[in-house]
Records
---
Amino acid sequence: MNTLEMFGLDGQVAIVTGGSGVYGQFLCQGLCEAGALVIVAGNELDTCEQFVNQLRQAGHLAVAMFLDLSNEPSINNLAKNVIEQYGRIDTLVNCAVSRIGNASLEEVTAAGWVAAENVNGTGTMLMTKAVVPHMRQQGKGSIINISSTMGVVGPYFPMYELDGIVSGIEYTYTKFGIMGMTKWLASYYGRYNIRVNSISPGGNNIKGTKDEIRSQAVIDSYLALTPMNRFADENDLKGPVVFLASDAAKYVTGQNLIVDGGYTSW
């Protein structure tokens, strides 16, 4: 197999949770461009279908499916439907995230914390649990968890405080937890040729995301902390997700690929 063939995903089926979100769209586009049939899964089916139409118009293979990560039957139904319709699941990208309960320690509530973890923690675990038996049966698979730089380092609060806001404790808890789960899954399922890795993106300032509303002071502070002096753009996650999904990374598991322009390198 030559190098170009290693990166190809022709004939493969990938599920991306939160696939119609801003980061999710980049990941779906990358996987589609590499040849995969991508299941764009999310709890806003109309939004997923609109995005899938864009992918199809560009000549890609994509299907929208409903997914409520806070509901176990919905998770199991998604995995069941993908297997029934396409016969395989080669890649799962756990990208969906809930920001409910994302607050400081003194402001967060037990109800908000639990609601967020039902998606971010329990939902991610159950989605992974639903696909693993199928990957074991086919003898291979790649699971890619989307973490964050907030799963690598603590928040730099002086930057957030320029806008009078705080980086929530629940979000940091979730992203560090995803890193730990990635290590556990990689250690256990490596024997079945199932690879499990994570990607930790840095910030972006792309239209449609929360970062777009940041003040210039926060933007300047973030860029000053980033050696490459820019935010992530719409292409920066495509290569990493295709690499981890493909045979080019067939000996890579249990790793966290940081894609942050050097933000965590200090």
---
Amino acid sequence: MDGRFTGWPEQAMDVLLQLQGEPSQAVRERCRADRERLVRQPMIALLNDVADADPRYEDFSVWHYRTNSWWWQHQSAVIRLGRKVEIGLRFALDGLRVQGAWWYPDPGQVDLFRRAVAAEGSGRELAAAVAELSEKGYDISGDVMRRVPRGYPADHARVDLLRHRSLIAARSLDGDGTPHTAQAVDDVRTAAGDLDAMLTWLVRHLTRPG
């Protein structure tokens, strides 16, 4: 790698194919060097190029390998924007996927989220951002309660958002094989722009003063 992202080479898919199922330790060790060079290093280059465009994206991590075979089959990375608020990327045999997420909340964050959702101004702002992402093809998910949380009316205008204990917007960036070209950098930057309104809202409202 020369430090700039040019796309995941086709050989990266060959390595990931070898790691499907429950690969033995011998298979993992045989693939380790090629996986590092062909799968993980391109993700690092991609994130560096994305961070060059916006200093907010400089705090990122590209995961190493863990015991579970899933981590060998999927190359994940995160860009941290705030406490438990991240942009996540995942490259695997099914392509490149991006998500904006608030998850695994810190103590007190769920209460802060609900209060901001219930408030008229901030609540409308988040609802509009989430609706726009849905219209652009993002899947909206998260840890969602079956019932409205205690203390909030069942007919609240934003009852669906109030039931969230985490919030994720995700979509695939597979268009025309772009993960295998430098176009993926622009695709990720575009997705980050799409996610910006929701993620900025989450950072602003889920960070306690001081």
---
Amino acid sequence: MKSIITTVAGEITEVLSKVKEEEAIDLSQQLKRAKRIFVYGEGRSGLMGKAFAMRLMHGGFPVYVIGETITPSMDEGDLLIAISGSGSTGAIVQFASKAKEIGASVFLVTTNRESKLASISDGIMSIPAATKFRRADEPETIQPLGNQFDQSIHLVLDAVIIGTLEDGNTNETMAKRHANIE
């Protein structure tokens, strides 16, 4: 078991070392400019998106997860963070297209710069990880399906939040926004 844990950690370290800093900075700047932030992904990527949205909320951002009952309508000046390893997930393409029609910006977190979603996005952060498709340009992994992508986006998006919240958002400030009915 220890060798599996070590291998997984090494794989993630390798992926994270290849994420382009300028793309992470672009996402950070778009978060700061957005009137409101909407997050969407499917499956495990969607779960990572919800974790990202939670931390954004703790950081004081007006953020919503698409598909939740309390999510308001999107408007011009809003930002959709679309998370899709393939960049071609049908529902995400549909939501991103609608967001663009409304006048919102779309930022894609993906492995695929050449995808349909990439072509309509205002910004892209490429995570060079393996997905369930195992395309020729994806790294080798011992992990099944999109584990490597999902683990990597969780860590990268947490790092983006840390970098974005440099002005006065301490652990104490964020803790005040943390759920207290537990």
---
Amino acid sequence: MLSTLLAFLGACTLIAASPGPSTVLIIKQSLRSRRSGFLTVLGNETGVFVWGVVAAFGLTALLAASEVAYEVMRIVGAVVLVGFGIQALRQARRTKEAPEGWEGAEKSGWAAYRGGLLLNLANPKAAIFAMSFLPQFVPQGAPHLLAMVGLAALWAVYEVGYYGLYVWFVGRMRAVLSRAGVRRRLEQVSGGVLLLLGARLALES
């Protein structure tokens, strides 16, 4: 059981360390404040847990089997990513036009949480991945449903801690990153990356 748990946490670390839309959004929101960054993390991990529970009940198999359902989610996910990318580029422009030292309006807690949740739930790959990832670590003889839900909860909690380090690091670098020029470049980079990820998802067959 212990070796299985350690292997699971190791796999969770590799997954979290792989750059993706969630990482970009978390860093982007952390530039605003630690609160926005952490609430984005909580939203994202709520999505991770939801997909884990859905996988536990076998419902993601329907998504994998239904080409129409997958295609709809893929297009929705692409639209969400492009929307976040445009939002970041607009923010970069506002930062350029604002006076030096201007920080802009911080997102509300609900908006930050909702952004993280929406980005995760709109990603069909997250659903399919949960379905293929979690069953590998269910101990032999354990109740499948309870074990899957437990692993999904552990996965989400672990990633809260992992991504929390990102939020903490950006907060520590805030004096440098909050400078208008630096922040504008970071917003431009994050916006461009999100647009590219959205375009790639939309063009996938």
